[in-house]
Amino acid sequence: MNSSKSPGLAGFGILKNTTCHTEKKISVFFSIIFMTVGILSNSLAIAILLKAYQRFRQKSKASFLLLASGLVVTDLFGHLINGAIAVFVYASDKDWIRFNQSNILCSVFGICMVFFGLCPLFLGSVMAVERCIGVTKPIFHSTKMTSKHVKMMLTMVCLFAVLIALLPVLRFRAYQIQASRTWCFYKTEHVEDWEDRFYLLLFSCLGLLALAVSFLCNAVTGITLLRVKFKSQQRQGRSHHFEMIIQLLAIMCVSCICWSPFLVTMAKIGINESRSKETCETILFALRMATWNQILDPWVYILLRKAVLKNLYKIARGCCGVHIINLHMWELSSIKNSLKVAAISESPVSSKQINLQPLSNAGH
């Protein structure tokens, strides 16, 4: 069947020759587990964010809390919508011809897969850029990065992800039921048309670009924090630097490990014309890896805080017997402390005050 000419029946072409089979009980089990764990994790993260926003209303934290809230809410709705559709498909014994005559459900499923796949990646890169600006240019961040600007960025990111997800529908290219008959996405079976290749490569390139931006900005942020730590003569803030570096490393590792297999696989399918049975199994494995990123996001961004790092430090110190840092330095607020140190180191006002101190002493 020609998917570009018959969008209403395009999704059923793959059902005639299914080359990928999944165990129903195991697949239903995985879908329910992923959906439940994701909803619980993101709900807990939302509760923690709301509590933190009520306790701390500093301007330095407003942008971070807004972006983190957008990321967690996006992950939550992604688990709710995609998980509910996946469970319904498994419960209906994957009989798409019976409940998807007009291909509406497959189109909605494909749009949600693309949107909830790209939007968290975009938000992660925006958060990395925001942290990089906040650490390297704290004065500019405190004066220019207002809550209004952050909300505008959130809206633009979501609209851009929606546009990418709706692009095939606007071009009358239907989303395809995949070989496993469990989910819908761009056409991945016998990709020959240039437009089908374009959608796969566009999705992969945008996702990899978001990961690259996150990696670069987090690396710059980590290096800046280390430089501020070594230049500062005070011990205040060392615990925060350690905490921030751990969080940045965790964010980069989780995002790259979870999303790289799926993005690279989609890029390979977009480049190569044919696809084998191993590729279908690889897609399913990569898709589950990408799902784990949405589960781990709240734990990395929100729950990996000083309480957890303090316990890890105690365990490491008990095993290695090496004294690294003092635990009594974990008392001050994390984000406020590091921004304060960075702002003092780059503020021109502080340098003027330091230069004026000898003059005032001489006058006395």
Question: Overview of this structure, please?
Answer:
With 364 residues, the protein is mainly alpha-helical. Helix content is 76%, strand content 1%. It has helices at residues 24-55, 59-91, 96-99, 104-136, 138-144, 147-170, 194-231, 238-271, 277-303, 306-320, 334-346, 348-363, and strands spanning 176-177, 184-185. Strands 1-2 form a two-stranded antiparallel ribbon. Strand 1 (176-177) and strand 2 form a beta hairpin. Helix 1 runs parallel beside helix 9 (277-303). It is globular, with a radius of gyration of 24 Å. The N and C termini lie far apart (92 Å). The model is unreliable at 1-10, 327-336 and 349-364 (pLDDT under 50). InterPro entries: GPCR_Rhodpsn (IPR000276), GPCR_Rhodpsn_7TM (IPR017452), PglndnF_rcpt (IPR000141), Prostanoid_rcpt (IPR008365). It comes from Melopsittacus undulatus. It is a multi-pass membrane protein.
Through-space gap between termini: 92 Å
Helix fraction? over 70%
The percentage of residues in β strands lies in: under 5%
The parts where pLDDT drops under 50 for at least 5 residues are 1-10, 327-336, 349-364
Instruction: Please identify the structural class as seen in this structure.
Output: mainly alpha
Q: Globular, elongated, flat, extended or rod-shaped: what is the shape? A: globular
Radius of gyration: 24 Å
| Annotation, overall tally of beta strands | 2
Order of helices and strands: HHHHHHEEHHHHHH
Average pLDDT figure: 76
Main-sheet strand order equals 1-2
For the largest beta-sheet, the strand count, sense and barrel status come to: 2 strands, antiparallel
Number of helices: 12
